[in-house]
Amino acid sequence: MNRLPTTVLAGALALGAVVPTAAGPAAAAVGARPGAATASRCVVAPVGVTAPRPGAAGTDLRTPVATAGRTGSPGVAEARAATGTEVLSVRGAGPFRIGARLSRLSAAGLIDWTVVECGGVVRAGATGEWAGVVLLAFRHGRLVEVGTATAPPRSPAGAGVGMSFADLEAIYGRRGSMIRNDAGTASAYLVRFGARVELFTGHPIRSGVGYFQVGPADFVERRFREGCSC
Question: Phi and psi for 96 in degrees, rounded to 5?
Answer without folding.
Answer: -90, 80
